[in-house]
Amino acid sequence: MPVIECDTDLIDPGDVLDVDLTNGIIINRTKDIEITVKPLPQVMIKILTDGGLAAHFRKYGGFNLE
Predict the structure, then answer these.
(1) DSSP 8-state secondary structure symbol assigned to residue 7
(2) What is the pLDDT of residue 6?
């Protein structure tokens, strides 16, 4: 699970969230607000899309940073 840092003052237990790691936006659907966060680097998005670090290594035989 990726770690993102954000101010959680606008998030309560039970709130429904959509997290856009590429663009750095958390949408709190319960309160209809957007919280801006630092986007993840593209290489992290690629690793997550591949299914995690182990799956990424199996697919490419190591890190593929391109």
Answers:
(1) -
(2) 85
